[in-house]
Amino acid sequence: MGNFSDTFFESHVSPAGINTSFPSGHAAAAFAVATVFAHRYRQHRWVPWVAYGVAGAISFSRVTTQAHFPSDAFLGAALGFTIAKFDVLRPR
Fold first, then answer.
1. 15, 67, 69, 85: which has the fewest C-beta neighbours closer than 10 Å?
2. Is 4 exposed, middle or buried (0-12, 13-18, 19+ CB in 10 A)?
3. pLDDT tens digits for 41-67?
4. Can you give the three-state secondary structure of the chain, one letter per residue?
5. Of 21-25, 53-57, 61-65, 75-79, which range is least confident?
6. The pLDDT of residue 2
């Protein structure tokens, strides 16, 4: 990987002719779980801080290991939060 001047929206094209970037599944899963925990245990003030802190650390680790661009981790986190908030936690 290496070149962080690329982003999710403006990445170089692979030899196959497709963009080489993709939202982080780890970040999406981490933020989806964190959102559910933060909602279910919101009566404890520390739970949302810990849940989103751990999810943020997982997302950040994907960037530091050069598995994803920062925009990939951000988009994965946004997807995970949105899916959990508007599908898993929606009123029935």
1. 15
2. exposed
3. 999 999 999 999 999 999 999 999 888
4. CCCCCCCCCCCCECCCCCECCCCCHHHHHHHHHHHHHHHHCCCCCHHHHHHHHHHHHHHHHHHHCCCCCHHHHHHHHHHHHHHHHHHHCCCC
5. 21-25
6. 54
Rounded Cα gap, residues 81 and 45, in angstroms: 19
Cα distances from 47 to residues 28, 37, 73, in angstroms, run: 19, 7, 22
What residue type is assigned to position 58 of the chain?
I
User: pTM (2 decimals)?
Assistant: 0.77
